[in-house]
Amino acid sequence: MSNSPDGRGPASTSEVQPDDPRKGVLIVVSGPSGVGKSTLIERFLREDSHSEFSISYTTRQKRAHEIDGKDYHFVDEGTFESMVAKGHFLEWEKVHGNLYGTPRAEILSILETGKDIVLDIDVKGAVNISGQCTAARLIFIEPPSVGDLINRLSLRGEREIETRMKRVEEEIARKGEFGYTIVNDDLEKAYGTFRKVIDDIRREDNGTNNC
Ligand code: ADP
Ligand code: 5GP
User: Fold this and answer.
1) Does 5 score more than 80 pLDDT?
2) pTM to 2 decimals?
3) CB neighbours of residue 12 within 10 Å
4) Ligand 2: centre distance to CA 112 (Å)
5) How far, in Å, is the centroid of ligand 2 from the Cα of 3?
6) What would the pLDDT profile of 145-158 be if each residue is shown by its tens digit?
């Protein structure tokens, strides 16, 4: 590279590479159903103005408290399949008999703005994303015990507990594939660790390297 007359920088503008503005970090939160992912994420998003939630598409029935377009985009199977065919999803999986997909374009455009994005997806989906987006950071939320998990699902009024429990051992066995693991025993303590992990991720990440 040639230097400018004062010797302090590149001579021609074609060689000038303006610093890339910081891009957001893809923060993938995963773990068994009922472990407390939404609880941790919702509180974090209320307190943090530098991140957004990635709203997945699903064919599952909407729960009473859920809002279409906020918790999920609720679609029928035909719509979901045609979105798969058009490459709309960064990843998608069948979870507990329903289809769930992470929208590609929405995520990438938010990352471009410099905001971090938080995903709440199943373990297979998380590992899939980390294969495609090497800069994604994966956080695994673990239950204190399987018994605690069953209690939490019953408290939530979940009716498909057995279907969900079948996957738990399988999912916990994959926690080694995640960069960070947090046991959600005491909620306040787990939330403190969750925030600290995200602070660490932000400190370590140079924000330029996404999928
Ligand atoms: P997920 O999003 O992982 O499926 P949720 O966040 O919906 O799980 O939590 C499932 C249930 O467990 C909710 O009723 C929630 O209030 C409760 N819960 C979450 N964290 C804790 C905790 N540390 N101790 C006790 N109950 C919890
Ligand atoms: P729920 O039906 O309880 O909201 O979610 C069931 C499971 O699907 C959870 O483990 C949740 O993290 C996961 N999930 C939600 N959205 C997505 C997605 O877009 N992709 C994948 N792979 N899993 C998802």
Assistant:
1) no
2) 0.89
3) 9
4) 24
5) 53
6) 988 998 888 887 77
